[in-house]
Amino acid sequence: MCGIVGYTGRRRAAPVLLKLLKILEYRGYDSAGIAVANQERIDIFKRQGKVEQIGSASLLVGRTGIGHTRWATHGAPSEKNAHPHAYGKFVIAHNGIIENHALLKEECIARNETFISDTDSEVIAHLISRYYEDDFLRAVQKACVRLEGSFAIVVLSSDHPDKIVCARKGSPLVVGKGDRECFVASDLVALSSETDQAFLLEDGEYAVLQGAQPVFYDRELSEIYKEKLRFDPVFDCADKEGYLHFMKKEMNEIPSVLNKTKLSCVPEKDFNDFYKVLCQTEYIHIVACGTAYHSGLCAKYALESLCRVPTEVCIASEYRYRNPIIKPRTLVIAISQSGETADTLAAAKLAKERGAYLAAVTNVKYSSLTRLADCVLETNAGAEIAVAATKSFNAQLAVLYSVALLRKGEKEDFTEFAAYAQKTLDSAEAVRGWTPYFLGAKSVYFIGRGVDYCAALEGSLKLKEISYLPSEGYAAGELKHGTLALVDENTPVVAILTQRSLAEKTMNAVHETKSRGARVFLITSLPDIAANAEATSSVLIPACREEFTPILSVIPLQALAYYTSIARGNDPDKPRNLAKSVTVE
Ligand code: AGP
To answer: Which of 58, 130, 284, 535 could form a disulfide with 311 if both were Cys (CB 3.0 to 4.6 A apart)?
Structure first.
């Protein structure tokens, strides 16, 4: 994963690099570093930990530099494995995975070259150094030809202290142009903090940043013209606004996000095409990862029950290698908050290659997924900074439910849901009192049936992700087929019950766990269930159309994960080992 940046121009590079890296921290925060070139030398400053650990690097002198924020793939998170990496006259920062790094490293070692880090990336600097005669760009190109896997790289050379060479294959890289200055970054969100003019580098292309104007080359190094993209700021605000954590702020934004929901298409002119495809479609495939996968599961229940369109929801990393059957009139919906998740992108690409119409549900304008899709259904949830997805999940549901209603020929006004969500947020505060029962638990179960089962899966993922407690989301009817053996008097069980027709059935599972000593916590829209004396505690949420209840029932589950995380002394915004956007497979 990782975020990479570069700057050359009229200002001192270090403060600009640090600012851009801070924005890209969602891509990884195991370690961070920058390298700044001046006429005498290239200075490198790197540390284990978040970008704030390299704050003093802002003093480095020079107007050209590169930077990196890391999510470790090869080599533990440590200072020696932090980027940038140097060899000879070259310093590089890399995002991606070099799959043939072991072979290339052996080759270098046979030439008596020594390595400092355990990364797959360091070998890139060695190769560039080997191929360098006097042409910086040519040396980078020759090195790139040897690399297998995915990469976006930015390179400095002490022979050319005012130049950055950039290359990409499979990992994103965008170049920006400002007033007598150039930028490069892993995404447009970072660039949009400095400029509104960008160039999107494609696989196999190279860029040279020097002076005011970037120059682009194809894989044979012939100069090419690239269209300039003028873009609006991607997100106008990424501030905690007085909250202790982004996660809490983002949960509290759910009502306003739902209030804004309006099914629309980017570009708008494509909406008719999308509508036509939607009305004629006979099969829907949804591909996504993590929380976005769970929103796809919720959508399946709505699409099948309201529209009777067979809908398959598939984890993107499985779909891409599964040789899926994509029949004519199949609509593929890729869901991704970031629009950069590598597996989701690969699954979407595969579906498109096989002739499917591709609709993207995403929160980030100009992301890789938006560029791939035939039509983009934006979630407009605003910047989501906390690694644990919250408001983007609710926004994805609002969009996907609107798609189901559009196909059915009904209109739904989600502003009504905004008021319900506010009420749910208020009642969800009660889960703060549940945390003592969860802190020392060996495992936690979330159970439900139908759409409540989908919410249970999401509640469990959230708890694992930020509280580090082992937990499972389970179909309530399935417990007795094995997993019940794990339930004892130390097991908290959270049951979600929002569908009248299934409530008694789910209560059977509740009784079964209760008789094995479990402590039961209920989240329900049914007042009689909320009053059930067997539960340790219950949260009553507003009732709404049954197919759509996860949009509300997930809120107390998000709150439970948040408060448990804090009670365990964790940082809910930046959980260990994770990153906001997973750009490697
Ligand atoms: C959610 O809390 C997780 N951080 C994670 O599962 C996330 O939803 C997943 O990585 C997919 O990300 P995307 O929506 O940006 O594609």
So the answer is: 284
